[in-house]
Design brief:
single chain; 423 residues; mainly beta; Methylamine Dehydrogenase, Chain H; five-stranded antiparallel beta sheet; 33 strands; DUF7899
């Protein structure tokens, strides 16, 4: 544990980037694209850092020169909704809407990083042009399996594409499919429920072969809070009922009391550790598939009420969680910076907070390592203003790489962070 704590003692501010261009990056036809807005998504790919603003403008910067190269919007009416780094072919995928079609459908484009590095964002090519991605259509990127899932609401067709070369692998056409959940190697098809059960199918993610079809019994007149698939485990929760964990291989069923496991707003599945995180009322908890609570975090109160944002990261070893959190009200600096939060780094298995990045009075970073002496160290003090559209790079000693896995699934019909949904 001490090694993990020492690893974060030398956090320091290395650069601050500004995504806003008051002159406009081109002949913008949408006035709101000229406004300074907050950064909602950051993606790093090799020596390039992409920052997407709430307005839909995406700027990218060189880590070598620490300068803005240019903007990713290639037309004056493009509003970028989401970014995805495809490590299979070293390209960035943008999901956008356009004023020219009244922002009615999603358009995807792939641009190789080498072209972006040269300042040629228009050198990319369109993806999935044959698909009509109007609401409630969507596109979902799954780099765990190396697949892309699209849904065309006009003809009720789901299609699966190869993430390496974007070739279509197979399609699923069934108007009774209500939702598709993706897990390593498989897909779960959830059909319209009957009065006392819900039909389910498990398919191979590679070719769409049906591996198992079955009905899961439900309590009548109780709404389904969620159905989730994790490898061979099926998680089912109905309103005011116990959590059910079904092993689909042998039909073994176990239940967790509804007083112990209350319906969360979101999950993150930890495939390496055979655990899962739940998010509820800004709190994070860790569970195993025996229905046992593994961890409650000591200092990890999320800033946002749900995790449907680009503000939660899991390390590649899945031992640490890094989140934007509400600052401890007992910290003295919060008296003057009451609206500021902190980036908390916590151990997933123990719940211990190992380190925090805060902004002290005057805007300078304050790095706190929880190593027993309570002192922070190694911070490069610089005065920085907190302005919308700006973001900071913080260097961590022995920094770990983070997998580009986006494993968060949202319940209650809210969009998945891996899934860009039509407006």
């Amino acid at each position: 544990m001490r090694n993990a704590q020492e690893r974060f003692r030398n956090m320091r501010l290395v650069e601050e980037y500004d995504t806003h261009d008051p002159k406009g990056h081109q002949s913008v036809v949408l006035p709101f694209l000229m406004k300074r807005t907050k950064v909602v998504e950051i993606v790093a790919a090799q020596d390039i850092v992409f920052a997407l603003n709430h307005s839909g403008v995406c700027a990218f910067f060189s880590r070598e020169t620490n300068e803005r190269i240019c903007f990713l919007n290639v037309t004056p009416d493009e509003v970028i909704r989401s970014l995805f780094y495809n490590k299979n072919n070293d390209s960035l995928i943008t999901v956008s809407v356009y004023a020219s079609d009244n922002f009615s459908s999603l358009k995807c484009r792939s641009t190789r990083i080498e072209y972006i590095r040269r300042g040629q964002p228009d050198a990319g090519f369109a993806l999935f042009e044959s698909e009509s991605l109007k609401w409630p259509g969507f596109v979902e990127f799954d780099d765990v399996n190396g697949k892309v899932l699209t849904y065309s609401a006009e003809n009720n067709v789901y299609k699966v594409f190869d993430l390496k070369n974007y070739t279509m692998l197979y399609s699923i056409s069934d108007e009774h499919v209500q939702e598709i959940k993706i897990s390593p190697g498989i897909m779960l098809l959830i059909f319209e429920r009957a009065s006392s059960h819900v039909p389910l199918k498990i398919l191979s993610i590679e070719d769409g072969t049906v591996l198992k079809a079955f009905n899961h019994l439900l309590h009548r007149n109780k709404k389904v809070d969620f159905i989730e698939q994790f490898n061979e485990k099926l998680l089912v929760k109905q309103e005011n009922e116990n959590l059910q964990i079904l092993d689909v291989r042998n039909a073994e069923l176990m239940e967790v009391s509804r007083t112990e496991f209350m319906t969360p707003s979101a999950f993150i599945f930890l495939y390496e550790n055979q655990l899962f995180l739940t998010f509820r009322n800004r709190m994070v908890s860790v569970w195993n598939f025996r229905g046992e609570l593994v961890t409650s975090f000591e200092d990890h109160l999320l800033w946002h009420p749900d995790c449907n944002r680009n503000n939660i990261y899991i390390t590649s070893d899945q031992d640490l969680i890094i989140s934007y959190c509400k600052a401890d009200p007992d910290d003295k600096w919060t008296e003057t910076e009451g609206n500021a939060g902190s980036i908390n780094i916590s151990n997933i298995l123990t719940g211990e907070c190992l380190a925090k990045i805060t902004v002290a009075n005057g805007g300078s970073p304050d790095c706190q390592s929880r190593s027993g002496n309570g002192g922070g160290s190694g911070c490069k003090k610089q005065r920085r203003s907190q302005v919308k559209g700006k973001f900071r790079l913080v260097n961590l000693c022995s920094q770990r790489k983070y997998k580009n896995r986006k494993l968060v699934r949202e319940i209650y019909g809210r969009s998945d962070p891996t899934r860009s949904q039509s407006p």
